[in-house]
Design goal:
By secondary structure, this protein is an alpha+beta fold. The protein has eight helices and ten strands. A hairpin with a 5-residue loop joins strand 8 and strand 9.
Amino acid sequence: MSGAVPRLERELLAISGGYSGTCTWALTDLASRDRIGHREDTVMPTASLIKVPVLVALYRAAADGRCALDDRITYGPEHRCLGSGVLSKLSPGVEMSVRDAAVLMMTISDNSATNMCIDLVGREDVNATMRALGFEHTTLFLRLGDRSAGLDARRMSVSTAGEMMRLMTLIAGHACVSPEASEDMLRIMRRSDYRHELSSELPWNEMNMLGDDPKAAWVAEKGGSFLNGVRTGAAVFKGPRGMFAMAAFCEGGTGPGTGRGAEGNRTLGRLGKAAWDALCA
């Protein structure tokens, strides 16, 4: 294990240890393949981070010929889910490509677009895809907005830091679908409008870029949030000095702050910044 990684491990443990609830994380240096983690097999609620498995299942369905990314689909009342996104504010009947729905799902975390993607491939197929990739815990229990879950994020979807980190590693390594499709998934996640979790403390400029060359430094990521301090994030970071995959979960924190300034968001941001400074900057 390279010298930077043990030092980073100690720093990440100190950061996660300061969180007032449960904090889990996992990281792999994609150059050296050094791997570190803390409680990475602990099952945690995902919130919107489950949209990464939905994206992978969608692209695998397209690869298998069960749908095409340029097929046209229509937003209907059965897809409507309040919360993040824009479609719930629009009238039913909006038409878009499958890929456009995926872009809305990932870049602005659109819940209604997510339901469109889930319905297209099937909730069972999302879970079967995760099992086929070797992830026994990552599970989508319900479509978004299903009231049977109440306000319990664990009844909606769960995963672990280790599994989400490995999923991001597979995407970065073009191991889920073809290299072209894998790069498209990364391209979509690089264009996230939300930088509230792992990459929140990086030096983003006003163009949502990490410098002048978008090929030299970027973060492909997805995050999530819910009640009871649930904050989640998974990402592939690429910088001038290196590249790594990381996932982290927070739950149950009682520290000060709400919304984007909640203790969980601040903790995830500190974890991501420490890893970036050690391995990429």
